[in-house]
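Consortium newsletter contribution from the modelling node. Members have asked for a concrete example of what our holo predictions look like. Here is one, prepared for the iron/sulfur cluster complex that several groups have been discussing at recent meetings.
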Amino acid sequence: MNNNAKDKIDIRSLGLEALQEHFIRMGEKSFRAKQIYEWLWKKSCFSFNEMSNISKELRTKLDENFVINNVKINSSQVSADKTIKNSFILHDTHLIEGVLIPTPGRMTACVSSQVGCSLTCKFCATGYMERKRNLNPDEIYDQVVLIDKQARENYGIPLSNIVYMGMGEPLLNYANMMKSVERITAEDGLNMSPKRITVSTAGIAKMIKKLGDDQVKFNLALSLHAANDEKRNTIMPINEQNSLKALAEALKYYYAKTKNPVTYEYIIFDGVNDGIQDAMELAKFCKHLPCKVNIIEYNPIAFASYINAGEDKVEAFAAYLQKQGINVHLRRSRGKDIDAACGQLAIKEKAKVSEV
Ligand code: SF4
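And here is the predicted structure:
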């Protein structure tokens, strides 16, 4: 018997075959493993006790040998625009954030991929936190499950879209990000279409190529924010090792392999990247492959001196791009009053252990 929690196996770290092997070693039939797998993923069950078609004896055995390290809601805040920001607590007491963004015709979950971030984008609150660790696939999956439940309970509508734009750089947690997408899209998982998923990167050229090699079906977004190396180096230091030339080359490779157009995210900072020269550089960068541009409103954070560009400048910028035949969308920020908007996620509270 194996009663020490730290010696127990994290059951969701096992694939179906590995679980079946464990069951055979425990003297159980392998079809039982399939039943448990379904409870764990398709039914998102967080307790062996709730697995109602499993005998009491087997449930006890499972409890003695395995653990379900599920994510829990630590606290939630609702914005005036109905955006809900969640602080989630992990089994090792680390906190992360995930957001439910209700917009007309869409229920979007914005999920985190790491605890903190190792990159240091100057406009982003997470960039000022230390990266503690990568999230496991099930920890990304659980955020989707919990936010979906929240969407149904609060607004009567299930999730329609998932964006990997919360805390962390998903491409620096590549294997776990991919595994989470596999579980979210699998028939014996959440069975969501990959077309409803967008993974956003600060721009890691080598990993963008890998997405191409893996012929992913989900959408890719690049946080661009400047199409000029000198400017981008100051806004996003990761550009020093992943220049615009390297990114363009990687994106062309990705497009050749997947035929998926790419979205460029562009926050317009007042006096930094808001001029017509900047728009011209962006238009030139857009010529590399089929793409669209999302212009995003900036949400000032305490650590950074950037401010949002005025409406007139944003509109002139967008109009210039449109004239060049570029598909442009202006995105208003959501959840600003509760620090849930793009670039604002950073843990400001302690775990509420009593609620766990
Ligand atoms: S924008 Fe993304 S990659 Fe950059 S610091 Fe923030 S969380 Fe990390």
